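FORM 7B: Structural annotation worksheet

SECTION A. Query
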Amino acid sequence: MGMVNGRQFFQVGNLQAMAFQLPELGILSLAMMITMLTAGINLSIIASANLTAIVAALILSNMLGPDASGAGATAVSLLAIAAGLLVAALVGLLNGYLIAWLDVSPILATLGTMILLQGAAIVLTKGYVISGFPPLILFIGNGKILGIPMPMIIFIVCAIVMAVLLNRTKLGTSIYMFGSNATATHYSGINNRRVIMQTYLVSGIYSGIAALIMMSRFNSAKADYGESYLLMTVLAAVLGGTSAAGGFGTVSGLVIGLVILQIVSNGLNLLRVNNFLTIAIWGIILLLVMIANYYRNQYQQKRRTA
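SECTION B. Predicted structure
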């Protein structure tokens, strides 16, 4: 049994399937990680992604048939993508406004937004699936360039942009400073509110990009896709060394965390482990990592004071 699964695991088809699955979770994890760096969290990334996909899907289904092609179809597809990403950006700004200006805690602000968006998504779709998209949209999640899956290319670009943003820009420095010590950041002349607004805006846009890959891969949009992803994005960030207390975490660490998660997930899949048991295993891994982080921090503090 182990031999068969080992062989199955390293088959090209299986590795390619992983390359198609990993990017949407990866981009959502980047959306989660940037908020965790400010000692916040964004519980609305999945709901935001689903609403993005639904808005884009409604434009496509009302203006085009699934077989539409030509310049008109391309223009409508681009309009749908732009409208979807605008929705995602607005959700990000709403989260930022609630947290930065109204002083709502990130967990409550984004939980509220999540419930609002889930309700809006169900009202818009009446609980149904919207499906049948033109070729340009389907290419985003299923196409290949030089044999590399399109979603993987989008993920690599998103990861590089996030790494540059965090390591090479004033905003990135401000995010790390804010996560380490918000009061000191304020007194060093940085506008904390602006930092939070921009952080949640980026998080919103990234969840929108993930939405475009998801809707394309499934060739459909629905109000409750990807709900198990929320736990996995937090898990990927924490596994990759992002501190839940803020101020510490890297994109490279997150990518390593994602690869570990994807390998474990794929292994469990090949062993035909029950889905609900898999989710329980994710919970156990998250708790173990957090316990390990706690003891590592305690040990480091002892060494510093020794």
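SECTION C. Observations
The mean pLDDT is 90. The beta strands are 130-131, 144-145, 148-149, 220-221.

SECTION D. Sign-off
Analyst initials: ____
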